[in-house]
Amino acid sequence: MARMTGAKAIFVAMTALFVSSSAALTAPASPLSMATGPVTSQPIGHYEFCQTHRAECAPNGRDTGAAKVTSFGWQTIRAVNDAVNNAILPMTDKELFGKDEHWAYPDGAGDCEDYVLLKRRKLIENGFSPADLLITVVRKPDGEGHAVLTVRTTEGDFVLDNLERDVRLWTETPYRYLKRQASFNPGRWVSIENGDAVMVSSVGK
């Protein structure tokens, strides 16, 4: 068998993760997707993170819409979610850094934002577009703030959460969704207009 060049190998790997078409790129957003609004305030922890990781907060360019994730892509998403959840010990920023808010890649321990940063990086390394991996701020039923990773797909928006093993549609979680990174620029944040659209059956879980 002929040996693949590096560029061809990357193309094949990307094809295994996603199935794209011009129709998929122009299709309307799924009814199971979050409706985002105008640009809003960036969390201070993410702002400080961007000062030391500027390349990760640079504009992506034009947003061409979510790709269709293949079965292999879903396996990768679930594997990354499990691996990070199992590898990181939950600890607060106060315990780790002596301050209330500090976003960083975890070194064995971290809080919710740190889990999200690591999952996002690992999925990008596996071929996912940064435009489809969006750090999202939510409010838990008890009123406490929390961060999760939203994965945009043509089937809707799915959530990777350090408090939950399963990867779920955002509407099947008990959270109120407040804001997330902009798909066109990871250094900007947008509001979520339908952030209360959780399923009744999920409340109280």
Automatic annotation (TrEMBL):
Keywords: Signal
Signal peptide as annotated in the record: 1-24
Signal found in the keyword field: yes
Keyword ATP-binding annotated: no
A Pfam family it matches: Peptidase_C93
PANTHER family recorded: BLR5470 PROTEIN, PTHR39327
The name this protein goes by in its record: Putative transglutaminase-like cysteine proteinase
Organism field: Mycoplana dimorpha
